[in-house]
Amino acid sequence: MPNILRQAVVADDEEKAEAKRKASEFVHFAFLADIEPIDHKDALQQDHWKAAMEEELRVIERNQIWKLVDLPPNKSPIDVKWVFKVKLKPDETVAKHKARLVAKRIPPKSWFGLFRSVCSNS
Question: What is the pTM of this model?
Fold first, then answer.
């Protein structure tokens, strides 16, 4: 028997099924990576993503999620970013394009300062 065959690993049916599932997930991820924009500039080039962004802004206004105010002195604005997701039906066809406007991550130093001021006031 050739040496290469002695070193080969024979997978059972369960291992083959797991490998096939992982490959399928990777292909699915690659498919979605191609159709979900990375940033708002890419999204604005496509009508369905632009409509999803407009819908998110309408919902924010309708539900009075936030209001624009003047920034107090010595304060930094909270940065936001768009997150895009394709929602699929059970048969894996596109159900809708979803856009969310979310706050960006707050730097750890800001959290520490906030935590320290809250603890010292208790």
Answer: 0.58
For residue 54, what are its two tokens?
């407009």
Cα-Cα end-to-end distance for the chain: 76
Please tell me what DSSP assigns to residue 5: H
Domain boundaries, the chain: 37-67+77-122
Cβ 31 vs Cβ 87: under 8 Å: no
> Rounded to whole angstroms, how far apart are CA atoms 29 and 39?
17
Q: Residue 67's pLDDT is what? A: 79
Helix (H, G, I), strand (E, B) or coil at 19: helix
Q: What is the pLDDT of residue 120?
A: 54
State the Cα–Cα distance between residues 40 and 49, nearest whole angstrom: 9
